[in-house]
Specification:
The protein is an alpha+beta fold and 321 residues long. The chain is 32% helix and 26% strand. Strand 3 (84-87), helix 5 (93-102) and strand 4 form a beta-alpha-beta unit.
């Protein structure tokens, strides 16, 4: 959307009825011909706009597109998501966010893509990103944390997504360490965190998240689910993303004010890993035992059958039956 198209939509939303083309053109200082052209392009983008002679234009509905203008409207955050870069299609939001991070993008900058050609999860796995179905985004943060605690940001993102989905559509979700968002035992979303840091200071962190929102069965891989499959109705992706950003900001402020324990406490309340017997595949070996807890760095503490506990910072976790 162009800045002028954003002004037109904002004007029509505030009027909530028919507005003459003459009034719109005069207020926005454009020609009637220019207004008509913008209206046609907005219709092509999915906005339903009625045009009636002698009455003017009326906005009937907005598309469920994650346009920056739509997401920031009534968002009411201070930093998170205040700057958004929107792409109809992109190779990977993570790659673009890393590029923007190295370029000095402000903390809270969000990269959104309606479709990814090379969406990825942990360990380079592909993440299916069908167009206009899910939320595929990467958030740039510049936290004042020691690099060893960067993993807490993965927990923060997971907690924020679970809280947001509960708030936006009433669906209860669970978190599987380290980065899986589950619903009824199936994968609804995932989180990928990448860090750029020196030995003692974080330059920036990129938190990528993919959530299956309005995906039907055909667009889901085996073992995955979506909010549509769970609730049998579409969810507003704009409203859900807005709520995620609000929850991220709230939890990020709590992290800065109170430290990692503020996030870890919440994470414990949503997780399904602690207390279970698990097998963790990491660094070309498998560790099996009981998942006891997570520490202040976000590491998983596993007590092996020998009685010795081991801290694991990254790995694939399987819950043993």
């Amino acid at each position: 959307m162009t800045p002028m198209q954003e002004k037109i939509i904002d004007f029509l939303k505030r009027k909530q009825g028919y507005v003459s083309g003459e009034e719109i053109a005069e207020r926005l200082k454009i020609s009637r011909q220019g207004l008509w052209k913008h209206i046609q392009e907005l219709k092509d983008s999915g906005y339903e706009i009625s045009a009636v002679p002698h009455l003017g234009y009326k906005l009937d509905s907005s598309p469920d597109r994650l346009f920056a203008f739509e997401v920031t409207s009534d968002l009411n955050t201070k930093t998170i998501g205040r700057k958004i870069l929107y792409f109809d299609a992109l190779g990977s939001t993570m790659d673009e966010a890393m590029k923007q991070g190295f370029g000095g993008a402000a903390s809270g900058t969000l990269i959104i893509a309606e479709q990814q050609a090379k969406g990825r999860g942990r360990l380079g796995r592909a993440w299916a990103s069908p167009k206009y179905k899910g939320i595929y985004a990467s958030l740039i943060l510049r936290p004042k944390l020691p690099p060893a605690q960067a993993s807490v940001l993965t927990l923060l993102a997971a907690v924020s997504i679970v809280e947001a989905v509960k708030e936006a559509c009433g669906q209860e979700l669970q978190i599987k360490w380290p980065n899986d968002i589950l619903c009824s035992g199936e994968k609804l979303g995932g989180i990928l965190t990448e860090l750029v840091a020196s030995m003692d200071e974080i330059n920036f962190v990129v938190i990528g998240f993919g959530i299956n929102v309005n995906n039907d069965a055909k667009s889901l891989v085996s073992g995955a689910t979506s909010l549509y499959r769970q609730q049998k109705q579409n969810t507003s992706r704009v409203a859900l993303l807005q709520e995620i950003l609000r929850k991220v900001e709230k939890n990020y402020l709590a992290l800065e004010a109170k430290g990692p324990e503020a996030i870890i406490q919440k994470w414990r309340g949503h997780n399904i890993t602690l207390g279970k017997r698990v097998k963790v595949y990491c660094q070309h070996k498998a560790i099996e035992g009981q998942a006891l807890d997570i520490d202040a760095d976000g590491g998983l503490l596993v007590r092996k059958d020998s009685g010795i506990s081991e801290k694991i910072m990254a790995g694939d976790v399987t819950h043993c039956r």
